[in-house]
Design a protein that fits this description.
Elements lengths: L1 E3 H6 L2 E4 L3 E3 L2 E3 L9 E4 L12 H6 L4 E5 L9 E4 L2 H12 L8 E6 L4 H14 L4 E4 L3 E4 L2 E4 L7 H13 L4 E5 L2 H5 L10 E4 L7 H4 L2 H13 L12 E5 L3 H7 L6 E6 L6 E9 L2 E8 L2 E7 L4 H16 L4 H8 L10 E3 L7 E5 L4 H12 L6 E5 L9 H12 L2 E4 L9 H14 L5 E3 L3 H11 L5 E5 L6 E4 L2 E4 L2 H16 L11
Parallel strand pairs: 4-5, 5-6, 6-7, 8-12, 8-13, 9-12, 13-14, 14-15, 15-16, 20-24, 21-22, 21-24, 22-23
Antiparallel strand pairs: 1-3, 2-7, 9-10, 10-11, 16-17, 17-18, 19-20, 25-26
Helix pairs in contact: 3-5, 4-10, 4-11, 10-11, 12-13, 13-14, 15-16
Length: 507
Amino acid sequence: MILDKNFFKRINANLINAESVEVLGVSYDSRTVKKGDVFFALSGTRTDGKKYIEDALSKGAVAVVLEGATDPLEAPTIICVDATTLMAKLARCVYDYPDTQMTVIGVTGTNGKTTVTYLIESILNFNNIPSGVMGTINYRYPGKIVDAANTTPKSADIYKIMREMLNAGVKHIVMEVSSHALELGRVMGIEFDIAVFTNLTEEHLDFHGTMGNYFNAKSKLFTGLLGQGAQKGKKYAIINVDDTWGLKLSKINLNADILAYSVRTDVAYKAEDVKIVPTGTTFTLVNGDKHLDVSMRQIGLHNVYNALAAVAAVNASGVELEKCVAALETASGAPGRLEKVDTLGLGFEILVDYAHTEDALKNVISAIKRLKPKRIITVFGCGGDRDRKKRPLMGQAVVNGSDFVFVTSDNPRTEDPVKITLDIEVGIKRLGKNNYKVVTDRAQAIYEAVAMAERGDIILLAGKGHETYQIIGTHKHYFNDCETAFECVGRVKESRAPKQHQKEFNF
């Protein structure tokens, strides 16, 4: 695609040292630059992109983007005031507006985003609709899976992946849209067709400052649904109105059809007669005059909400409600969400879950209580370099809901793990609880929980879910809750096995 000076003027940038450039792609990382790319030399928290200009040019970059007043380069240079906005506009153009050629579903909220995207994907696949997903675990479409660096990548990556998906035959794309992405302009310019709001609870306040700011960031997905020059017609906002913030969102003029979901009030998608058993969940979905029986593998009331959100989104995209409901019976949940670990017949259960907020922990423990275990033994910690205010609240939620708790490390990052556990203990001590033990080494904490467990107990390993690492300092170290737990089960099973005594013979 040949782009001249006039084009860049229209998007508030100036091209110098060239009348035009032939652009094939957009990159902000010199390690990924390919011939024909425009390279954005961005200033980051750890390094400055200007250090890598020569490397990018040597790999075939046709121009370099610089933000603000700066010394000109000899190479073709694009000067702009706002590199984030320019990146979104340029990438959307270079990759030929892929968002206008597919159904785009965005899912936002504090908890449930990943599960909702997996359920939407399963419903679409069940109905033979090619789909792609961008989310916390990975970015995937038929024939390709890429590990996710961020829940929502930068705009250059999003538009590039969208184009790849479109070229592979994908018709629907579902994205987890984080509050950081909305605030930092990563989804700028994307024409969403359907936006889903799951809930809002205290999280990321180290970034947003207040719940009001956090809500305003999430709201951008909905207030911007029409975008600039929307081309695809009607828009839909799928909102959980049982959530206080969701109810507030539903009362804003969104320029979209609001499709509410609830388990309490009569709205467009309501769940009634909810029954939760160890093998799954059933309920009746009420939609106008329709009453449909729903059966799914996922357990817990929070997963009823997730199912309602997924069904409403796919139904809004044009799939018959009956076909959406039929798909739920075999729909896959997200990895690391109440994922079972084989306990080799020892008589207790181990469940691994990503719950890492106060609300998520309450939800998952509530779901486990419905299974009527003898005891709930929970292992959890809090991430380092993140909002400290939520740590005491998480500690209170866990000791209130569990019979015994092992307070341990999550991803301590550059914080001292002991100081993180002390923050958690502040909340526990306020309640006067003593049903816990601090074991900062996560592997050891998991082992002690497994060694403690008896027949009928359920162990919850919370906080890391699908993650296969721990971030200690600035480095990632391989760590997998499921694998570690299974190894501990083996050790405990061996220790509990009856010892074999050889018979003594007298000659």
